[in-house]
Amino acid sequence: MADLTDAPAIDPANWTCPAPLRDQGVVVMGHGGGGALSAELIDQVFAPAYGNPTLAGLADSAVLELGGARLAFSTDSYVVRPLFFPGGCLGDLAVNGTVNDLAMSGARPAYLSTAFVLEEGVELTVVDRVARALGAAARAADVTVATGDTKVVESGHGDGVYVTTAGVGLVPDGVDIRPQRARPGDAVLVSGPIGLHGVAVMSVREGLEFGVEIASDTAPLAGLVTAMLAVTKDVHVLRDPTRGGLGASLNEIARASGTGVRITERAVPVPDEVANACGFLGLDPLYVANEGRLVAFVPREHADAVLAAMRAHPQGAGAALIGECVAEHPGMVTVATGLGGTRVLDLPLGEQLPRIC
């Protein structure tokens, strides 16, 4: 047996862990992942610094009263790597992401601003491709890029191109969509197959091949939301499950509303190629990012009609009812598994794949 008396003392402070530790005094990648670390950063740094009733809702966009109109206002930064991936690129992602954040308040998006941060040395042809994709996506989403800005940083102090977009839109009368409105009995609907964006970006970034090309689902969702609201304005919650995927969005809604959420694993539409890729990489598709999907909480009496309207729209053709909002286990999400058991779907710590949007 080896003599360990002269072995160096074990210092836990020198241990490493693939998941970021939660008591670190510096920013780690997990702070940008849309999970528990992101929530802690907001709660401990930004909310105390900015604290006001408008910000307190922490929805995808803020709804503001201005001059007798109700405006939705949202801003987001996009740092996806690589800049171009199957099904999209940084440019259309920057439009669709902000348009969708506005739509999650029921708004009709109208205007965007855009700010480019360029790294010295990036090829102008790359910047041109991103800008043209952004313009085309804005036209497709029927929004106007009304103002913008450009900054350049020294070589080595960026990653080619970063884009920030902000947007405003009008919220129709009688529409009140926010995570606090989820109620026991609500049906939980998802607009289509999940996980495509995250796996598409990962396949290019890591040079992985899964037998078929997996394309991002990036798309504007305002038209789909309009179709849903045409059935009933009493849609309680809408969320686009981007960073942290469907799992993070359901947890955020459960915690904001103080209700429980119960979903059925087999009811969640996961494409075979996404399931196979996630199985190979040890990922849970419920936590993989999406950029063209929404999750909706709708009163049960309207659920069938809303689901039919979603399926009749191109962006909701694969819509499915995946669960319900319940009074039990408030603030918690549970999953009925395919084996007949139940598991807790917790808020992820960070992002399985950073720099996804």
From TrEMBL:
Domain PurM-like N-terminal span(s) in chain numbering: 60-171
InterPro entries, sorted: HypE, PurM-like_C_dom, PurM-like_C_sf, PurM-like_N, PurM-like_N_sf
Top-rank lineage group of the source organism: Bacteria
Domain PurM-like C-terminal span(s) in chain numbering: 183-329
Gene3D superfamilies: PurM-like C-terminal domain, PurM-like, N-terminal domain
UniProt-listed GO biological process terms: protein maturation
Stored Pfam families: AIRS, AIRS_C
Family under the similarity heading: Belongs to the HypE family.
Protein name: Hydrogenase expression/formation protein HypE
